[in-house]
UniProtKB/TrEMBL annotation:
GO terms for biological process: DNA integration. This is Integrase catalytic domain-containing protein. PROSITE patterns: INTEGRASE. It comes from Stephania cephalantha. It holds the Pfam family gag_pre-integrs.
Length: 257
């Protein structure tokens, strides 16, 4: 194709794998003559009759031929080559488990010739590798025994113990960090277990639990436990969704005393 031939009304289609030229458009815009033969396609200047471009048929498509190519190899348009390399880079990025583009360049230097690494962007990486901002840790407020009790439920365990239990519920006193663990056959037993724990504290320590801190587990939000907490004047603190840090005492610092 003649390098002086200017194509007008070019549309950019992101990620298209090849460049397409409309024959009717090029004839109108460049005022040239197009001739189709069994050998291919030719564009001629109408005044001089000089051939300004030609194309060879490959698999039913006419591919433009380079003007300078002596062996008449079908030329891949430059833009097509670039797109193909970018597609390959992204393909290897996905295949290898989303490594950094710097590392990909180390593995495939040929694909990155004349490429700016910063121009590559993977949406999956952007979303998956985002860092969350640091969660501010609350200053510990000294309390007194059983003014605040943390609770969480773990399970189900893949292996049932002999009694048939596969869950356990923990109660941690915020002041002393003493931990009680009860085994459960079903999560729904949580409300009754808390009642038993409350009675235990009343009897043994002659005091009342003032607040219960849990996550948003449904087992803590049933009518049985809700009514019991109201009756005893116990405040229920529930952490926000997806913020285990707010329930950090039972999440990360379980110690059995
Ligand atoms: Zn990625």
């Amino acid at each position: 194709m003649s390098p002086s031939l200017t194509l007008l009304n070019v549309l950019h289609v992101p990620k298209i794998s090849c460049n397409l030229i409309s024959v009717s458009r090029i004839i109108h815009d460049c005022k040239c003559i197009a001739t189709i033969t069994f050998a291919g396609f030719e564009f001629q200047d109408p005044c001089s009759g000089k051939m300004i471009g030609n194309a060879k048929e490959v698999d039913g498509l006419y591919h433009l031929v380079s003007e300078n190519s002596s062996d008449e190899q079908v030329q891949k348009p430059r833009c097509l080559t670039t797109l193909s390399c970018e597609n390959d880079i992204m393909l290897w990025h996905y295949r290898l488990g989303h490594p950094s583009f710097n590392y990909l360049k180390y593995l495939f230097p040929n694909l990155f010739k004349n490429k700016d690494i910063s121009s590559f962007c993977c949406e999956v990486c952007e979303l998956a590798k985002h860092h969350r901002s640091v969660y501010p840790s609350l200053k510990y407020m000294p309390s007194k025994p059983f003014s605040l009790v943390h609770s969480d439920i773990w399970g189900p365990s893949r292996v049932k113990i002999a009694s048939g239990s596969k869950w356990f519920i923990t109660f941690i006193d915020d002041y002393t960090r003493v931990t009680w663990i009860y085994l459960l056959k079903e999560k729904s037993e949580a409300a009754n277990v808390f009642k038993n724990f409350h009675s235990l504290i009343n009897t043994r320590f002659h005091t009342n639990i003032q607040a219960l801190r849990t996550d948003n587990g449904r087992e803590y939000f049933n009518a049985i436990l809700g009514d019991f907490l109201k009756e005893k004047g116990i405040i229920h603190h529930a952490s926000c969704v997806d913020t285990p840090q707010q329930n950090g005492v039972v999440r990360g610092k379980i110690g059995i005393y």
